[in-house]
């Protein structure tokens, strides 16, 4: 590795299948000669065991220094009053954009040729967790209440990020997903800000349309090819990005990037999969694709492309696939085949 090219980055193997799929990804990155100098840290259950905190100070310090991380899935311990480490990381580093691309990797299925980008606002909306009960009579939990907050500034920031990404990546159409017919204030502000920003700065650069979230879910299942890029608020983005992952083979194929002003953190969309942890059978593709997004982020798109090509060849020429994709390979067999493809110029 050329030391001039070495880019400091934080590595959080994570919980459950995390260490298994992160190891597989490191093998692939190594074969590519990727330029990362890793600082390995713990979080989630691993953080609680090692430092009594799901997000230890040393982990935060590392990300503050590197501004770049690859993160395995984290479990939030139930009990003990811990907040989700993922939500804390988003807040700490103002990771306002959650970017989730979905592409068909195995042709011939129900949804061929999908190439969709979901951009989700990551810090506001109904996801902020401002919730409480209102007692009535003897029932302390008679009413449950949640507050959603969207700010014009927060909407503008995510919409500008999404529109700039559309221009930079040549997307033809951007669809604003909202529920402004019912939540006129909360998601009306998002819709109105998007339409205004487009009219002011982006007209002619791509087509802009808008769709109500429930109709969007139906249209995605009936005809996903009518969409190119979806931009939406936090909760709708959370739900729709899992739906879109399902179109391309499930959670094992879905990477995510959390982009902010202070750092960028790359991860798989899926969780720690405790049901298969330790068995060596997890599909590592989602986090490998997250590593590809990370390579693009540090301006090494040629390495990202080599990684994606090698994944494609391993799946479709070698037909080496893990169980969730209907194959019989374990994580190690898939990784070995992938590394061989990379070394042979894949
Ligand atoms: P999950 O995504 O871990 O698992 C859902 C199902 O998908 C399981 O059957 C699992 O075996 C399967 N699956 C997931 N990833 C797979 C892979 N790479 N290969 C093969 N199969 C895979 O969701 P869950 O069970 O609801 O959550 C488990 C834990 O993960 C929870 O503690 C949750 O809070 C956490 N979680 C973390 C993140 C994150 O860190 N970004 C995201 C989601 C959930």
Describe the structure.
The structure is a single chain. Helix 1 packs across helix 9, helix 7 (213-222) packs parallel to helix 8 (234-247) and helix 9 packs antiparallel against helix 10 (301-316). This protein has two domains: 1-93 and 262-346, Isopropylmalate Dehydrogenase, CATH 3.40.718.10; 112-250, Isopropylmalate Dehydrogenase. The strands form two sheets. Strands 2-1-3-12-11-4-5-10-8-9 form a ten-stranded mixed sheet, with helices on both faces. The mean pLDDT is 95. It is of the alpha/beta class and 346 residues long. It is built from eleven helices and twelve strands. The protein is 41% helix and 23% strand. It is globular and about 60 Å long. The structure holds nicotinamide-adenine-dinucleotide (NAD). Nicotinamide-adenine-dinucleotide (NAD) is lined by residues 17, 21, 73-76, 86, 251-252, 267, 270-276, 282-283, 286, 324.
Keywords summarizing the entry:
alpha/beta; single chain; 2 domains; globular; Isopropylmalate Dehydrogenase; 346 residues
Bound ions, cofactors and other small molecules, one mention each: nicotinamide-adenine-dinucleotide
CATH domain topology of the largest domain: Isopropylmalate Dehydrogenase
CATH fourth-tier homologous superfamily of the largest domain: Isopropylmalate Dehydrogenase
Q: Could you say how many structural domains there are in total?
A: 2
Name the structural class.
alpha/beta
Instruction: Identify the strand order in the major beta sheet.
Output: 2-1-3-12-11-4-5-10-8-9
Rg over CA atoms: 20 Å
Return the average pLDDT rounded to an integer: 95
Number of strands: 12
What's the story with the biggest beta sheet? 10 strands, mixed
């Amino acid at each position: 590795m050329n030391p001039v090219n070495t880019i400091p980055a934080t590595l959080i193997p994570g919980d459950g299948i995390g260490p298994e799929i992160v190891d597989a990804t490191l093998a692939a990155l190594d074969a590519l000669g990727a330029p990362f100098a890793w600082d390995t840290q713990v979080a989630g259950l691993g953080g609680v065991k090692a430092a009594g905190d799901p997000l230890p100070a040393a982990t935060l310090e590392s990300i503050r220094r590197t501004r770049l991380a690859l993160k395995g899935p984290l479990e939030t311990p139930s009990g003990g009053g811990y907040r989700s480490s993922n939500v804390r990381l988003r807040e700490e580093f103002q990771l306002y954009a959650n970017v989730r691309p979905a592409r068909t990797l195995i042709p011939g299925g129900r949804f061929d040729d999908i190439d969709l980008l979901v951009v989700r606002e990551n810090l506001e909306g109904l996801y902020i967790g401002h919730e409480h009960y209102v007692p009535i009579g003897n029932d302390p939990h008679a009413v449950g209440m949640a507050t959603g907050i969207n700010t014009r500034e927060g909407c503008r920031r995510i919409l500008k990020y999404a529109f700039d990404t559309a221009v930079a990546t040549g997307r033809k159409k951007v669809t604003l997903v909202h529920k402004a017919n019912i939540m006129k204030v909360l998601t009306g502000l998002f819709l109105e800000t998007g339409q205004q920003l487009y009219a002011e700065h982006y007209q002619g650069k791509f087509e802009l349309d808008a769709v109500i979230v429930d109709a969007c879910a139906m249209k995605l299942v009936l005809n996903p090819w009518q969409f190119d890029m979806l931009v939406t608020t936090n909760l709708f983005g959370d739900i729709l990005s899992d739906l879109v992952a399902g179109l391309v083979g499930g959670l094992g194929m879905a990477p995510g990037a959390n982009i902010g002003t202070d750092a960028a953190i790359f991860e798989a969309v899926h969780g720690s999969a405790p049901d298969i942890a330790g068995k060596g059978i997890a599909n590592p593709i989602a986090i490998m694709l997250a590593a590809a997004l990370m390579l693009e982020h540090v301006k090494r798109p040629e390495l990202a492309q080599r990684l994606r090509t090698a994944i494609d060849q391993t799946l479709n020429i070698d037909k080496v696939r893990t169980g969730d994709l209907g194959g019989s390979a374990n994580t190690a067999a898939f990784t070995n085949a992938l590394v061989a493809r990379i070394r042979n110029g894949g």
